[in-house]
Amino acid sequence: MVKPLAVLVFALASACAPVTRQASDASASTSPPSNWADSVLASMTLREKAAQMVWPTVLGDYTSLDSPQWKRVTREITQDKVGGYTVSVGSPTEIAAKLNAMQRLSDVPLLVGADLEFGAGFRARGGYFVPNAIDLGGAVLFPTQMALGATRDTALAYEQGRVTATEGRALGIHIAYAPILDVNNNAANPVINVRSYGEDPILDGRLGASFIRGLQEHGMLATGKHFPGHGDTSVNSHLALPVVSVSRERLDSLELVPFRAAIAAGVGAMMSFHGVMPALDSTGVPGTLSREVLTGLLREEMGFGGVIFSDAMDMRGVLDQFGAKEATKRAVAAGADVLIQPLDVTATIDAIVEGVSENRYTEARLDAAVRRLLTVKQRMGLDRNRFVPLDSVRAVVGDSSNLAVAREIADRSIVLVKDVFSQIPLRPLPDARVVSITVARRADLAAGTAFNAELRRRFPGLRTVFVPADDIAGSLARMQSAAASADLTIIGSYVGQGWDATTVGAPQEFVDFVEGLSAGDAKPIVVAFGNPYLLSQIPTVPTYLIAWSGAPVSQVAAARALLGEIPITGRLPITIGPYTAGSAIIKRPPAGPP
């Protein structure tokens, strides 16, 4: 059985307490030495210590025992002796069963992390069965972090942390790579965007700290990312190396503010930024590979004593400049304790060992990192029981009370930015010809499904049109025809940070279509389920509503807000052109029956 909750709360509160003294390679730790952690460390060879610091990624999918994928995992655990994994997408029960099987293979318990930015459902869902698009269910999927920013409610942030930890631990996941503490003050950011709480560093810090407490007080380690700040970039670090050329004073007053709040809240881990900040390190290396950033600033100046994760080591932000082998050695020398998602597991372990023989760092530096990891494993009770009960997954994951938290966040996050003709709430006209145009990537099977189902309750004759985001030009005639035959056109944009991975801008054909409708008598309504900054490209649209996320709960909330069934009380956590952070149009449901 999993450790009792009260024990986990106490244990993690100790493990994640911030360290205020300066930290050295040999002594830095999340807690005082422990018998189990020290005894395991003492039994390890140099290569086994290095392996504890290397965490591959594994899908949470079904794999047979003789499949190439499972053979690879078996080799990584039994031969390379890796210390942990990042688990990616899969159904809840399959993730839990697979992680249990992986734990059985390992001599030392594995730590498992996952990108749970928007709850366990961000990774642990069954997906959709095609061609019918049947939702196979899963863990609770929350709206994006910027939705929480729109609510400004720290209690809801805490509750999201609580639910995420409860569901994640039931699956065998111990560490959430969340919250994102980047301050998104750059509307052209193609990688952070709605993943951030917003552009106000104080609000971001308050919400982040509350999420951290909710997560860690319920048994899961939180990871603040991407230190020292990925918000003011217009380059995707997955594809290239971003540079943030601002002063140290600006960093202190903006980027570093949420990270300081997280450390004060006892955050147990931090993840690095694959980007250059000349004000912190003038050599031009990304923060992940900079001793000035990870050790000088984070450990010594800011007093952080927890685990330092690199961002994924297969990203171009670290590979292009030095290559995988040299980047590995530089990351360890800089102060990283764990290297996630390396290109080659065995070669990465070998490179860490080689760095010791080359005097790039000492074995004591590895000891400090491994002691931190072993201490976290012990404080989570993995030295006594590393498995999760599979028959309990369905009793915890996706529970209706957990889903209610996600629904409340979605309901209270809706922001009405513009409503020139006071169209909201929509009039109850059963015979009205209403068309809902969904613009989304082809693979987004959920886009528009819940939203249109809610609208159809009020407008039985609702017509729906799906437009692939990569073929706006080819779909233009269908869009124009649908809008021309309708009394009301609602356009839902589900495209996230941008129409591609490098830019946030919508194609000109889409802009021209919306602007053309707005110039006539159509009075279209645009609902942003993806990039909220879209309004800057279509400033003449008369009604603009932001739902922040294409999650089902956000789709339902947006429809109910349009129909006047819930109040619209969210406020902008960002600035969009002339609409400053904090502004909004507040709407209350009309009195009496709809």
Commentary on this structure:
This protein is of the alpha/beta class. It has two domains: 5-396, TIM Barrel (Alpha-Beta Barrel), CATH 3.20.20.300; 414-562, Rossmann fold, CATH 3.40.50. The chain is built from 19 helices and 17 strands. It has helices at 5-15, 35-42, 46-52, 68-80, 92-105, 145-151, 154-170, 201-216, 248-264, 291-301, 316-334, 345-357, 363-379, 393-396, 400-413, 449-458, 472-484, 508-519, 552-562, and strands at residues 54-55, 57-58, 84-87, 111-114, 128-129, 134-135, 175-176, 221-227, 269-272, 307-309, 339-340, 415-419, 434-440, 463-468, 488-493, 525-528, 543-546. It has a seven-stranded parallel beta sheet. A six-stranded mixed beta sheet has the order 12-17-16-15-13-14, with helices on one face. A two-stranded parallel ribbon has the order 1-11. Strand 5 (128-129) and strand 6 (134-135) form a beta hairpin. Helix 2 (35-42) crosses helix 13 (363-379), helix 7 packs parallel to helix 8 (201-216) and helix 8 (201-216) runs parallel beside helix 9. The chain is globular, with a radius of gyration of 24 Å.
